[in-house]
Design a protein that fits this description.
The complex is a heterotrimer of chains A (279), B (356) and C (347). Chain B is built from eleven helices and twelve strands. With 356 residues, chain B is α/β, with parallel strands linked by helices. Chain C has 347 residues and is mainly alpha-helical. The longest helix of chain C is centred in the C-terminal third of the chain and has 27 residues. In chain C, strands 1-2 form a two-stranded antiparallel ribbon. Classes of the chains: A alpha/beta (279), B alpha/beta (356), C mainly alpha (347). Chains in contact: A-C, B-C. Chains B and C meet through helix 1, strand 2, helix 3 and helix 4 of B and helix 1, helix 2, helix 3, helix 5 and helix 8 of C.
Chain lengths: 279, 356, 347
């Protein structure tokens, strides 16, 4: 999807060109962010490969949230570089990151409770009518937004919702998370970032979200997953990035590490060795 | 700032759906409660009274006086009020609604002597007799009559009294006025006082253009205690030598006295005022106020209703007092320290004739 | 605060069963009112009209009286449009009446004092309104002053400027150009004299309702009020939305000022004393939430009409003025209660 202005296309994404296949989608180096005397990020690296789910784990205060905010444009880092598909970028706001094809599902859902489902899916990038009514009178094309929304939710298996007219606040927590994930899936052409997507959900609803993460990956879009939930991480992640005290201390394929090892590294109970960084 | 949303107690949750119907029932109840009287009142003459506010005792007495005399004359007097000393909009609405309700006459104390004119014109063009009470419209001829205190005379009386009282000592004067709007009552009282005291007032239609060095300054009080106190405090900051205080009315005088007392100057300061309300007269007896000009709001209302009766009987319009553009309802100086050449009554007489 | 709302709103749903029992009648009413928030105020207005018609008879429902009610609520209605916009963004504007009166004085001083052509003077008044709104908007967005405080401050600033500029003098209608008084002129229709101002207010309502509903800007106004942080994260330039809302609110207040001149037939620096609170009253009775994000200008029109019908009807029925104030107070409390109740839908 090259034009983020037009609607979500639920069909499969264009397959990545083979010559870029080896190149990581997203590379961050030395990201640093300080708030006064507090250093939230102290020179973190991050690498996201194609076709993978990268889990970012870490204790509270490890800098996970700041890290993904830097990647999603919500926070501008003091130092460090970010490259998308090998090109250096400088995000000044969420819009820049979105223009670069990075979509984020925030922990505090960026869902407007009083707006209906279609409006929430198109939050901040509403479709306008064609012709003068669109660019002149700036009228919305609610019909198209509704139709696309229906199609998208259907393709993601989320169309259990009775009516697209209902306000988001009348939905269950899982359904609302579904909307947020669907939005990211629809508009994220390069990367989808998810911050604790299952934190507030029950077992059944979490299951649904995990399936959605795998579905996005299968569509060819790599996913960064921030989560506290180790079983979820080990179930869907291809690699695990461990963040501690504002830095990346480990990054290993999920198969090469056990859950107790990961927790030990995360909490500082054991020290990482050289084998623990595999970009 | 709206607080974050919170769960509310169960009781509230139960109660809220009832609130809406409750409000409707209430409205219905109010309306039906008076519906009976409306039905029988079709042949009764409706007279509207529109005051500036509904909390000032001056207007409360006026309303009570009007309703009492209305009963004697067989009128139904409906009282409405604005929401502030200069709230014109509510008065316009009240006049319109009274005309729509079929009022034969409307008595009004205009909050804005000019801005009320279009509404008054409209009412008169529909055959409603409009009489101004307490303060005239500008021009006075815009209403069918005005029943008011001669505010200039009221100011003049306390001015003359003060002049005699300060015969042997130099005066430093604080002027505590009503509002910045330069409304007629404010201007007339202020300028009357100053002329009575022997100050060259220059433009008689304008407060504050004098250059007499005896005047320390003018401040506005909104005609209440709080405003009077604040205004007096400001002027005392300017000059602690103030020894004569003019106040637009007695609540402002009471406030000014508090400021004077707080400054420890109560023995050297003389306060004069206008109104003749019972608390004010008691303050004269208690030596808080040196002299006050008493006005007669009940007489304004009763005289005006008599004029309405006369007009409805044979079309006679109220006559103005000699030399004035309005019907003077009189003013009497109340003081326990009478001075030669200025007729006055003492506070004992005042307490018998005060209005609330 | 929006973030808090999101947490609250979400946190509330943790661990609740997925299947919901069939709704009780109260819950069904709650859902109905949630989906169609205009039902409440519309019902109150219709019932009030029916009630007063039965009690008072033709004196109430004759076209001339109904036209009068519309004239009486046009200023509060128009200012209410501005107030609705601001409240939709979870803000509040205490300076609306001050802006309105200030612009009338600006226009009158230019036209009467400086001899500027009437149309230009009027446009200058509108520009002054937009500028006042811009001051509010910049305070809220650039300097992060909470709207309540920002507009409390500017209320006094604009009020003082009004008195300084006018020298506290009322300009009489006879001295004003005809264009200024035009909104108060009448034409005859449906057996009543209708003012151009009341028609224009209705047009303004339709226009703003349309813009809010059909354009991306309108959508962004709602979302910004619904969840400020969410709107920002969704790429909505919330500062720009908020600034535009305050500027447009200022402009609408200036237009309301023109209607005010037409209605009272003069320019008084002391006009509109109660318009601030009355406009908020109309917005609240009309079902717009003070917490932002939900509501409708049509509700504000209904709210203003309800206040007008109560005041007129109770006067016609001979009810004491204090009971009018009382009943409006009850309506406000009821409206806020209904808002709180319906917002818990599904919770």
């Amino acid at each position: 999807m090259t034009s983020p202005g037009r609607g979500p296309v639920p069909a499969a994404k264009t397959v990545t060109a083979p010559d870029r296949g080896s190149l990581p989608v997203l590379v961050a180096r030395g990201l640093t962010k300080r708030y006064g005397h507090v250093t939230a990020l102290g020179g973190t690296d991050l690498t996201l490969r194609r076709q993978e789910v990268l889990a970012v784990i870490g204790d509270n205060g490890a800098g996970k949230s700041t890290l993904i905010k830097c990647l999603s444009g919500a926070v501008v880092p003091d130092e460090g570089t970010i490259e998308v598909d090998g090109r250096q970028v400088a995000f000044r706001g969420p819009l820049d990151a979105r223009a670069a094809g990075i979509e984020t599902v925030y922990q505090h859902l960026a869902i407007a409770p009083a707006r209906d489902i279609a409006a929430n899916l198109y939050l901040g990038r509403e479709l306008r009518r064609k012709g003068f009514a669109g660019w002149g009178l700036r009228l919305l094309d609610r019909k198209a937004m509704r139709a696309n929304t229906r199609e998208l939710l259907d393709s993601l298996g989320l169309l259990t919702i009775q009516s697209l007219d209902q306000a988001a606040e009348t939905l269950s927590g899982g359904q609302r998370q579904g909307i947020a994930v669907a939005r990211a899936a629809a508009f994220g052409s390069r990367v989808v970032i998810m911050d604790e997507p299952t934190a507030a959900l029950g077992v059944k609803e979490s299951r649904k979200v995990l399936d959605l993460i795998l579905e996005i990956k299968n569509r060819g879009i790599p996913v960064i997953l921030i989560s506290h939930d180790m079983p979820h991480v080990f179930e869907v992640a291809d690699r695990i990035h461990i963040q501690r005290l504002g830095r990346r201390i480990a990054c290993v394929p999920t198969a090469d590490i056990t859950m107790p090892e990961a927790v030990a590294l995360m909490t500082g109970a054991s020290q990482p060795g050289p084998e623990h960084i595999q970009d | 700032m709206p607080p974050p949303r919170r769960r509310t107690a169960i009781t509230v949750r139960r109660a809220t759906p009832l609130a809406l119907p409750l409000a409707l029932c209430l409205a219905a109840g109010l309306a039906t409660g008076c519906g009976g009287s409306t039905a029988t009142a079709q042949d009764e003459v409706l007279v509207g009274l529109v005051t500036k506010t509904d909390d000032n005792p001056f207007y409360v007495k006026m309303k009570e006086g009007a309703q009492a005399r209305g009963k004697q004359l067989g009128f139904r007097v409906q009282a409405l009020a604005g929401k502030g000393q200069s709230d014109n909009d509510s008065q316009v609405q009240a006049v319109e609604n009274l005309v729509a309700a079929g009022a034969k006459a409307i008595l009004i104390t205009p909050a804005d002597s000019k801005a009320i004119l279009p509404a008054v014109d409209k009412a008169r063009s529909k055959g409603v007799l409009v009489l101004a009470l307490d303060s005239p419209t500008d021009p006075v001829s815009a209403t069918d009559g005005t029943f008011a205190t001669d505010n200039y005379q009221a100011g003049l009386l306390i001015g003359r009294w003060a002049k005699e009282t300060f015969k042997d000592k130099p005066a430093k004067i604080a002027m505590l006025d009503l509002s910045p709007a330069q409304v007629a009552v404010d201007v007339q009282r202020d300028q009357g006082f100053l002329e009575g005291f022997g100050v060259d007032v220059k433009d008689r239609a304008r407060i504050g253009d004098e250059s007499d060095p005896r005047i320390v300054g003018h401040e506005v009080t909104d005609a209440n205690e709080e405003g009077g106190r604040t205004a007096m405090e400001k002027l005392l900051q300017k000059d602690r030598g103030i020894n004569l205080v003019y106040t637009i009315n007695e609540p402002a005088a009471a406030g000014a006295y508090e400021a004077v007392k707080a400054a420890g100057l109560q023995d050297s300061v003389t306060i004069v005022s206008i109104d003749g309300g019972c608390p004010g007269v008691r303050n004269v007896a208690g030596k808080v106020i040196g002299a006050t000009s008493m006005q007669f709001p009940i007489k304004m209302a009763t005289d005006a209703l008599d004029a309405v009766a006369a007009y409805l009987k044979d079309g006679t319009k109220p006559r103005t007092s000699d030399g004035l553009e309005f019907t003077n309802t009189g003013v009497t100086l109340i003081t326990d320290r009478p001075v030669p050449g200025v007729p006055s009554q003492d506070s004992a007489w005042g307490l018998k004739n005060c209005w609330g | 605060m929006s973030t808090n709302q999101a947490i609250d709103a979400r946190g509330r749903r943790v661990g609740e069963p997925l299947t919901t029992p069939p709704p009780a009648p109260a819950a069904r009413l709650q859902r109905l009112l949630h989906a169609h928030p205009l039902i409440g105020p519309a019902l109150v207005l219709v019932l009030a009209c029916v009630l007063f018609s039965l009690l008072i008879g033709p004196r109430f429902y004759q076209p001339a009286n109904l036209s009068l009610v519309v004239q009486q609520v046009q200023i509060i209605g128009m200012v209410g449009v501005a107030q609705t916009l601001v409240i939709l963004t979870a803000g509040i504007d205490l300076s609306v009446a001050a802006i309105m009166v200030f612009t009338t004085v600006v226009a009158a001083q230019l036209a009467v004092g400086a001899g500027v052509p009437a149309a230009l003077a009027l446009l200058a008044g509108f520009a002054a309104g937009a500028a006042c709104g811009a001051v509010n908007g910049l305070l809220v967005t650039r300097f992060r002053v909470p709207p309540f405080i920002a507009t409390l401050g500017t209320l006094n600033v604009f009020g003082a400027l009004t008195l300084l500029l006018s020298e506290s003098q009322t300009v009489r209608g006879a001295d004003l150009p005809a264009l200024f008084l035009w909104p108060g002129q009448t034409f005859s229709a449906f057996g009543a004299d209708i003012t151009y101002g009341s028609v224009l207010v209705l047009v303004a309502f339709l226009f703003v309702a349309h813009v809010l509903r059909r354009t991306a800007w309108g959508e962004h106004v709602h979302v910004t009020g619904d969840t400020l942080e969410g709107a920002r994260l969704s790429g909505i330039r919330t500062d720009r939305v908020l600034l535009s809302v305050y500027v447009i609110a200022g402009l609408i207040c200036a237009v309301a000022g023109w209607f005010l001149i037409g209605r009272v037939g003069s320019v008084s620096p002391f006009s509109g004393e109660n318009v601030n609170l009355s406009s908020i009253t109309a917005v609240v009775i009309g079902g717009t939430s003070l917490f932002g994000g939900r509501g409708h200008v049509a509700g504000t029109l209904l709210g203003a009409l309800i206040v007008g019908v109560f005041s007129n009807g109770l006067t016609l029925a001979g009810v004491d003025v204090l009971w009018q104030t009382f009943s409006i107070g009850v309506l406000v409390v009821a409206a806020v209660g209904v808002d709180q109740w319906t917002r818990r839908v599904g919770g």
